[in-house]
Target: Probable phosphoketolase
Amino acid sequence: MSGLDGFDGTDGLDALDAWWRASNYLSAGQIYLLGNPLLREPLRPEHIKPRLLGHWGTSPGLNFCYAHLNRVIRKRDLDMMFVMGPGHGGPSAVASAWLDGTYSEIYPHVSQDERGMARLFRQFSFPGGIPSHAAPETPGSIHEGGELGYSLAHAYGAAFDNPGLTVACVVGDGEAETGPLAASWHSNKFLDPVGDGAVLPILHLNGYKIANPTVLARIPEQELISLMEGYGHRPYLVSGDDPALMHRLMAETLDRAMDDIARIQEEARSGGNSARPAWPMVILRTPKGWTGPRKVGGVLVEGTWRAHQIPLKAPRTEPEELAQLEAWLRSYRPEELFDEQGVPRPEILEQSPRGARRMSASPHANGGTLLRPLDLPDFRDYAVAVPEHGEVQAGATTVLGGYLREVVAANRTNFRIMGPDETASNRLSAVFERTDRVWRGELLPTDEHLAEHGQVMEVLSEHLCQGWLEGYLLTGRHGLINTYEAFVHIVDAMFNQHAKWLEASRELPWRRPVAALNYLLSSHVWRQDHNGFTHQDPGFLDVVLNKRPEVVGVYLPPDANTLLAVADGCLRATDLVNVIVAGKQEAPVWLPMDEAITHCARGVGVWEWASTDGGTDPDVVLACAGDVPTLETVAAARLLQKYLPDLRVRVVNVVDLMRLQPPSEHPHGLSDAEFDALFTTDKPVIFAFHGYPWLVHRLTYRRHGHDNLHVRGYKEKGTTTTPFDMVMLNDLDRFHLVMDVIDRVPGLGGRVAPLRQRMADERLRCRAYTREHGEDDPMVSGWNYRSGRPDRPSRRA
Amino acid sequence: MSGLDGFDGTDGLDALDAWWRASNYLSAGQIYLLGNPLLREPLRPEHIKPRLLGHWGTSPGLNFCYAHLNRVIRKRDLDMMFVMGPGHGGPSAVASAWLDGTYSEIYPHVSQDERGMARLFRQFSFPGGIPSHAAPETPGSIHEGGELGYSLAHAYGAAFDNPGLTVACVVGDGEAETGPLAASWHSNKFLDPVGDGAVLPILHLNGYKIANPTVLARIPEQELISLMEGYGHRPYLVSGDDPALMHRLMAETLDRAMDDIARIQEEARSGGNSARPAWPMVILRTPKGWTGPRKVGGVLVEGTWRAHQIPLKAPRTEPEELAQLEAWLRSYRPEELFDEQGVPRPEILEQSPRGARRMSASPHANGGTLLRPLDLPDFRDYAVAVPEHGEVQAGATTVLGGYLREVVAANRTNFRIMGPDETASNRLSAVFERTDRVWRGELLPTDEHLAEHGQVMEVLSEHLCQGWLEGYLLTGRHGLINTYEAFVHIVDAMFNQHAKWLEASRELPWRRPVAALNYLLSSHVWRQDHNGFTHQDPGFLDVVLNKRPEVVGVYLPPDANTLLAVADGCLRATDLVNVIVAGKQEAPVWLPMDEAITHCARGVGVWEWASTDGGTDPDVVLACAGDVPTLETVAAARLLQKYLPDLRVRVVNVVDLMRLQPPSEHPHGLSDAEFDALFTTDKPVIFAFHGYPWLVHRLTYRRHGHDNLHVRGYKEKGTTTTPFDMVMLNDLDRFHLVMDVIDRVPGLGGRVAPLRQRMADERLRCRAYTREHGEDDPMVSGWNYRSGRPDRPSRRA
Model:
């Protein structure tokens, strides 16, 4: 390294190289060693782990980045976070955190000495130890990277509303092939250099994914540069395999990139330049498994896909490989890196920034430590006045929009709403009275509610919306994603991974709770009659309920007031994923606010005003969950009241779906006694459900009355038609519910046959009307539930 | 249009413009008109549909593309398909198909005259009519586009192994923001100009999505060009709003692009050039809602987001809007376009190619008409010889790989395997003995099994794999996608949409059945102990089983021989989505091939050789589905045989998960009598299941013995650990299954308490062993199920 000392007048690259060698040594040691961590004695088979698990290939490149980022942090006193796209390079993340001391601060038994190093090595990918990836257990990480594609979106999410933060994000060239990552490059069109921080993407081309080369590593360099320029970036290339040259090149390059960022921010923040800047990014091309075994058994490993995981596969049984492993590990000269006690030598420790400036100690990466509760207005102030149950109509999300308008205004840098261009479509436009949509593309005079800074982010990519919001939440802020119900399946996998992150985080006391990830699903299955079959899918609820109960909540508020109460609770929650399904069309508001609050607090309850059982001993229970099923159920109850006035009908509405589960399965679960009191143990229960009907069976199969439960829901019947035709197609309509009651309540006898026929005829009549007129019979669409007459529509709120 | 006649010596753009005006008229007519289709009388409110549903904004641009593509098809006698990314422009697709006669051929009641036009208009987005999108009902479509992002992947899938085909693909600028589409541009690195056809992407910038501008429409033109060049394309720009100029520009541009394609193919096919070509693509910039109302109520509509759906919202009630609508419709001069009978005039009809050259009549877009059955080898030839049940070990997917090798070889242009770089990881490498992975990036000497043409396609994007395969299947070929079980959730939404396509297609007699979409999920939840929690998720099965039963199948073959039998069946299937979950590690082969065939044909059956009930009257049923649960169940049965020899144990294995459902729910469903005969109605059933346990409850809740059913499965407990620790974490291990039996079989009395304790102790011992040694006790990992001893491991096949 001679000749590089004193680079740029501020730093010694020799010491930086020593840090790099130390982190490479620690990375390899975690993968291989059970004992003899400092190689004080010759390596023997019993020092080697019996199962070799982990990914070496990406680790030296990640270590290289980390070491060089340390340098610029120290030099410029930067507040920087590190997002590691190739999260399977877990050994690297752990090695760096141990080197800079964070690891031992959080896990004192893994001390920064020989004894701790032995534990560090043993625990990695070991039963009872730590995961092989950059998991929640890893200090400094908000991104596990097990499922690839989201690193850059997470990085931008972290940078929004964090003007003092720079997020360095290594994007692996495997990950770069994914769709979400390919779209994420455009995130720079949504970053405000004034109010937001900076993101420095480092595209790490090590050339291979698992067993194949990568696309971006095998296109001509000019194409790659065009691609990055096309994405709006200013790319810098760092390419090679000679450490000395590479250190100089990387240091020079990062200095230039950080100069660019400083200049961009300064110009923007001084008001001098409002054009969208070409943010820098780095293309780093290094061999896969750099500094590892070059050849094994005569076959090239370094620089090929064979270095992806374990370059030497059998050192425990093959003496030649054992010798090669020892030579490899000794090539880092551990005796120069660690002192007699196994403590990293002072010149290495000095490479690290101090305290919270260490990337693995960044408070942003343990966002709960920074979490400030939202300043929430009183949701009661936005209530729809309901003089009589259901007598007034309102669009639930429209009402919520008014509330969110004030949430936005009261939490300027702490709350964002993400959505794939559906905020207006989902009737939340009131928020635009107090904020704008972020837009750093060209602005035209005809544009509305677009600005360089705003709290609403809209891009036609559910992946970006979700990824940004995850990054925003995990760094200690709050938010909401609103999207069409059917298309939230696009982020099923991202939901799964975020839920898993929360599940694992909850077991780590040092990880402080972060704000809940809240989904507002509108434009739902029953109100996509106009867009047709592709837009009709309520199955996200099934996906959500597969995760551990303690991290998920599903709410189906039946009207505007219950939506307000539910939303307030969800915005206050932490370490959860909440799903709220709510309609956007005008619909009856069933409950005055005080009743709505009580009902939501209970999560499930009898609606006495719609029931005819006098509070005891019903003949049949009509249960419902979801706004449209509730409307049909109340209508069915009224039909029964009219035509079978002797029948004792109980209407039960479910807001909090988890209440249906046994308390052993979910903390919200009703006790069996409570469940039985509501649903009875022996009476027929006709359950009108928002989603796929079997979900209700799955939640209730252990309940006493389950054999009497008959669920109607979406059974995958749909097309472009009218709203009432949609419910008829799926036998969820009021007339069919009455028929279900007739079919299931014993002892009604022949006297109900005419009524049953009448209901069937009503269905035929409605269908015929619809097919003739192209719209629903006003009797069912503009129906007033109290009068039962279309000529007395409910009032608008 | 004067001065443009005779453009390029071959065609008249006047007539082309007339076609365009006709298709625009027909598009608007579908959205608005209930009657008076030819405007023979002044427009009156009753001529207007009561609900205005549909998307005008994108339609004129789509019509423009279709008209111009017709021109180049005729000029060059091209075999061309049209993929419409903005599938919500359904009016455009339907209008074009009606104009070229295909629509009336398929739907004779919608004849190509005034009467048919009236029906065409009425049926659109009307109850009992047709969907608003380019759905299966639409001739010429393989792509609905309800969920955006997959058009370009579908187009490439259609082009693979179709060297004579050119696929024109309009990509909307909204769709272009999605991740899957952003990644799809790189598909050109996987297209072979010799063996594959061509794709001509047309990026249609109309500037807006629903309520926002689009990213690609608002970046500087130079950035956009760089982006497309970076993606490896040669971009051509066509921009403007003057129809006359635009016609000339588009015609010239398409001529150049088609020349490029012809030259690229000729050079490659004559062996003159093997470099990856820069395929042409077109950037078409036109106003949203082009030729529609420019302003409504003083507000600009044309060229803004307000033109997205319905530009005039209330012509039925607002006289001014009615007049504006009439003026708009008359601006196309329908009297010049259609004759007295409403038949398009001859000069318009002449614009259309003939017969199967019409894009809406392309046989590729009704792929079932081209479907050739696979030439399948006899899977019995690949069977593992099993002298005694479970005595031999083999990796299931490794064995399948041998079979697939011959499938590949026997079906060179009719079968592809897609996967996100996991074909080797999933142990299917035998296929590389007969084919290669397609790779049009740079090739290095160290590369293996990469070639310019091949039947295996690997890219680290599940979206691309799925999209390519869908396009390939929908155009009449066969294939398989192999991927990690946890990450198949990435394409949940794409699966949903494909299943919906099949559900709708099955109701259309003219759509011929296409080959099944087959998923091979390996590296499954129980064998991702090394990668950790993020890689452990069996929930795709829950997603799949939400779709209509007639289009989905789920198979859990317990060993290599049953996998062969299942795979053979799945490769022969049509109009289905089949999911096969199979392990890749060495594991017992339980069944000789003849028994495997019988077992798979039945889908579920008693394994007498593992049972001790003598075929009648068991005390307990041990049921299992999935390879790892089967191993644990057989081991548990053997433990019970050893320690409780009097207990009558029946082992039931389930291969075909749909057999559990009632026959009313799924065509594979067992009758209640069959179910009861297998599972009994009154004995405890301990069910060891591959996935989330509640899925089994959901499938069986109506069965007589359901209350006695106790399911073990994955309950979201995982980390980086050992395989046996994974099953222990979820109480699915053999010891816990024995404890479950003890806890649930009545009358065993106190004599079993020591055995229960012994089982609990075994679990503790195994966990301690694992934590000490870092690997599983050979007693459970290398366990021979017959001897029960680790020193007699089963033989390798």
Observations:
- The two ends of chain A are 76 Å apart (CA to CA).
- Chain A has a mean pLDDT of 94.
- Chain A has three domains: 13-367, 379-586, 603-796.
- The longest strand of chain A covers residues 165-172.
